[in-house]
Design goal:
This protein is an alpha+beta fold. The chain has a 5-stranded mixed β-sheet with strand order 2-3-4-6-7. A two-stranded antiparallel sheet has the order 1-5. A hairpin with an 8-residue loop joins strand 6 and strand 7. The protein starts with a strand and ends in a 51-residue tail after the last helix.
């Protein structure tokens, strides 16, 4: 299966592409990705047989993650097909390949990862080998997503802990209230002023001596 570069770009631009969409929960995808992606792989093989350009998308209903299988002439997602003309000679003919694409902010800085699985003809004729390649690729991406989620959880926990004020130790110290020993300051009785009472001055008694009259 092959296409002229310009013809491929025009077909994508005009959406002359057969689409298949499916949804699944993240837990189911993580538990058995092969089963979840099997309908996508089957659809792509049907389109290869019909010589039709195609894209199959799985969207996780409870996470911002999408996984796609799509056809292209270069290692670029279909949505960037306009860029192909800057890289390849649009007059040339190139084989169509099947690419696996994952889109989510957690996968890398760009939020997208795309890798070639096999040429379309090989994907159809050597299905077991192609499916194994998809299996290995998906497990690697799931591992990255789990690691990213764990790191994010740890970061959030550290941030939350940093915001909380340091908790005081729950065990109260048995504080035996020391009754402050009152300083018994023996009040000094005010020093009595020794008042030496002056003995009252004795009145000088003048005894009149009366001389008897003769």
């Amino acid at each position: 299966m092959e296409r002229q570069i310009q013809g491929f770009m025009d077909a994508v631009e005009n959406d002359e592409v057969h689409h298949f969409n499916a949804t699944a929960k993240q837990a189911d995808f993580y538990a058995d990705p092969d089963a979840v992606l099997a309908p996508l792989a089957a659809f792509m093989r049907e389109q290869i047989t019909a010589d039709q350009l195609a894209q199959a998308t799985l969207t996780l209903s409870d996470a911002e993650v999408s996984v796609r299988l799509e056809m292209s002439v270069i290692n670029l997602p279909m949505q960037d097909s306009k860029t192909i003309g800057k890289i390849m000679d649009v007059g040339q003919t190139a084989p169509i390949n099947i690419y696996a694409v994952i889109e989510t902010d957690a996968i890398n800085v760009s939020g997208l990862r795309i890798d070639a699985l096999a040429p379309a003809t090989t994907y159809l004729e050597q299905a077991a080998t192609a499916d194994q390649s998809l299996h290995d690729w998906v497990l690697l991406q799931i591992d990255k997503l789990k690691t990213a989620a764990e790191n994010a959880a740890q970061t959030d926990q550290l941030a939350t802990t940093a915001k909380q004020p340091a908790k005081k130790a729950a065990t109260k110290k048995a504080t035996t209230k020391k009754t402050a020993a009152k300083k018994t300051t023996a009040k000094k009785a005010p020093a009595k002023k020794r008042t030496t009472r002056k003995a009252p001055a004795k009145k000088a008694t003048t005894t009149k001596t009366t001389t008897p009259k003769k």
